[in-house]
C-alpha cells in the first residue's frame, strides 16, 4: 500500500512537471526567491554587526524592507496586469542594482528610507510563480502544482537566510554587492523565461475589474487564511527559540527546525498527491491544533518531536490558500490578487512578531503558541462559516 501511494505521488508530480514550461519555472523561481529570503537576515547583520549599530537600528531597517514589500506587492501586481512582466522586472532590477551598490556607503539612518524603496520595488518572485501557476496550469493539476510551490518555498526559507548569514559574516565589505548581483541575475533569469501570467488569449492592458467585483468574502477569507497560517508559523518559531534559549539549548534549534521543515515537506507532498483534501478552513484549524502541543515542550528532543504534527499542516495550509486566491482572481486582476497574497504573508509575520514577543516576555514562551493557536482557530472558524454559508446559498 505504501509503495503504491508513493508511486502514485511520483506519477502525479511527474505529470505536473511535464507541463510546458513548468520545470523551468520551478527551478528559476526557486533561485530567484533565494536573495529575497536572504535580505532580512543580511541587512540585520550588516547593520547590527558590520556597522556596530545594534539590533534596534537593524530592526528599523528590516522593518522598512518588510513594510515596503507588503505595500509594493499589489502595486507591482497591478503594473504586471497592465504592462506585462518584463517592464516591471526591468524596473525592479535597476532599483535593486542601485540600492545594493550604495548600501556600503549609507549610514543606518539613511538605510531606512532606502530600504523602504528597495522593498517597494523588490522583484516579486513569489507572486510571479504563483500567478503563472494560476494562469497556465490546468485545473486538474493545480493542487499538486501549488503544493510543489509550497514545498519549494519551505526549502527556500531554509537555504536563503543561511546564505545571507554566510555572506554577511564572511564578506562584510563586498557582501551587499554579492546580494545585489544575485538580485540582478535572478531578475534577468525571470525576464528571460517570461512565464505566462495570464491565460492564453488574454492580453495585458485594458480596464481592470473594480475591486469590489472580486475582492469579496471568499477572497478576503483566503487572504486572511494566508496571513493566519504565517502568523502561526512565526509565533511557533519565536516560541521555540525562546524555549530552547531558556534551557540553554539554543544550539539544538537547527535540528528542530530541520525536522519541522521536513514534516512540512512531507505534508505538502501528501496534500498535492491526494485525490480529495479538506477545505482551507479545515487545514488552517489542523495547523493551529497541530501546533498547540508545542506549548508543552520541555527539553530539546520533546520540542523537536512536537514540531512534527505542527509542521505536517504547514505546506498544505499555505498551498490551499494560494490555490484559492489563484482560482478566485479574475484574469485581468490576477497580478493584484497575487500581490495581495504576498502582502497577507507579510502582514501575518508582522503581527506575529510583536504579539509573540509580548506573550513570551510577560507570560512565558508557551503562551505565544497558545495565543497564536487560539487566534488562528478563530480565523479558521470564520472562514468555515463564510465558505459554508456561500456553499449553502448556492444550493438553494
From TrEMBL:
<dbReference type="InterPro" id="IPR011701">
    <property type="entry name" value="MFS"/>
</dbReference>
<feature type="transmembrane region" description="Helical">
    <location>
        <begin position="97"/>
        <end position="121"/>
    </location>
</feature>
<keyword id="KW-0812">Transmembrane</keyword>
<protein>
    <submittedName>
        <fullName>MFS transporter</fullName>
    </submittedName>
</protein>
<feature type="transmembrane region" description="Helical">
    <location>
        <begin position="251"/>
        <end position="274"/>
    </location>
</feature>
<keyword id="KW-0472">Membrane</keyword>
<feature type="transmembrane region" description="Helical">
    <location>
        <begin position="281"/>
        <end position="301"/>
    </location>
</feature>
<keyword id="KW-1133">Transmembrane helix</keyword>
<dbReference type="InterPro" id="IPR036259">
    <property type="entry name" value="MFS_trans_sf"/>
</dbReference>
<feature type="transmembrane region" description="Helical">
    <location>
        <begin position="366"/>
        <end position="386"/>
    </location>
</feature>
<feature type="transmembrane region" description="Helical">
    <location>
        <begin position="55"/>
        <end position="77"/>
    </location>
</feature>
<dbReference type="Pfam" id="PF07690">
    <property type="entry name" value="MFS_1"/>
</dbReference>
<feature type="transmembrane region" description="Helical">
    <location>
        <begin position="22"/>
        <end position="43"/>
    </location>
</feature>
<feature type="transmembrane region" description="Helical">
    <location>
        <begin position="220"/>
        <end position="245"/>
    </location>
</feature>
Amino acid at each position: 500500500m505504501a509503495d503504491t501511494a508513493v508511486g502514485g505521488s511520483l506519477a502525479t508530480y511527474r505529470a505536473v512537471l511535464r507541463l510546458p514550461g513548468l520545470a523551468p519555472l520551478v527551478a528559476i523561481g526557486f533561485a530567484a526567491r533565494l536573495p529575497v529570503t536572504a535580505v532580512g537576515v543580511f541587512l540585520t547583520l550588516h547593520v547590527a554587526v558590520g556597522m556596530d549599530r545594534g539590533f534596534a537600528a537593524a530592526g528599523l531597517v528590516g522593518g522598512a524592507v518588510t513594510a515596503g514589500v507588503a505595500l509594493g506587492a499589489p502595486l507591482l501586481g497591478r503594473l504586471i496586469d497592465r504592462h506585462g512582466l518584463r517592464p516591471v522586472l526591468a524596473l525592479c532590477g535597476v532599483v535593486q542594482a542601485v540600492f545594493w551598490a550604495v548600501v556600503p556607503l549609507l549610514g543606518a539612518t539613511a538605510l531606512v528610507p532606502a530600504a523602504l524603496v528597495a522593498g517597494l520595488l523588490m522583484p516579486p518572485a513569489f507572486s510571479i510563480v504563483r500567478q503563472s501557476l494560476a494562469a497556465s496550469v490546468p485545473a486538474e493539476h493545480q493542487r499538486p502544482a501549488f503544493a510543489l510551490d509550497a514545498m519549494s518555498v519551505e526549502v527556500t526559507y531554509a537555504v536563503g537566510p543561511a546564505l545571507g548569514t554566510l555572506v554577511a559574516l564572511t564578506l562584510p565589505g563586498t557582501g551587499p554587492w554579492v546580494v545585489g548581483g544575485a538580485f540582478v541575475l535572478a531578475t534577468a533569469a525571470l525576464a528571460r523565461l517570461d512565464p505566462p501570467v495570464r491565460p492564453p488569449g488574454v492580453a495585458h492592458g485594458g480596464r481592470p475589474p473594480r475591486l469590489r467585483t472580486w475582492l469579496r468574502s471568499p477572497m478576503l477569507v483566503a487572504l486572511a487564511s494566508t496571513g493566519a497560517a504565517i502568523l502561526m508559523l512565526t509565533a511557533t518559531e519565536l516560541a521555540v527559540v525562546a524555549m530552547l534559549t531558556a534551557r540553554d539549548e539554543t544550539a539544538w534549534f537547527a535540528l528542530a527546525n530541520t525536522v519541522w521543515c521536513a514534516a512540512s515537506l512531507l505534508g505538502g507532498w501528501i496534500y498535492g498527491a491526494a485525490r480529495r483534501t479538506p477545505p482551507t478552513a479545515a487545514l488552517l484549524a489542523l495547523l493551529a491544533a497541530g501546533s498547540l502541543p508545542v506549548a508543552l515542550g520541555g527539553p530539546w528532543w520533546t520540542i523537536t518531536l512536537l514540531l512534527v504534527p505542527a509542521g505536517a499542516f504547514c505546506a498544505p495550509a499555505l498551498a490551499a490558500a494560494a490555490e484559492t486566491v489563484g482560482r478566485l482572481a479574475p484574469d485581468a486582476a490576477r497580478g493584484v490578487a497575487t500581490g495581495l497574497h504576498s502582502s497577507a504573508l507579510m502582514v501575518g509575520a508582522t503581527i506575529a512578531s510583536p504579539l509573540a514577543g509580548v506573550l513570551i516576555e510577560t507570560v512565558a514562551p508557551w503562551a505565544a503558541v497558545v495565543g497564536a493557536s487560539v487566534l488562528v482557530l478563530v480565523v479558521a472558524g470564520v472562514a468555515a462559516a463564510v465558505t459554508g454559508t456561500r456553499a449553502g446559498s448556492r444550493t438553494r
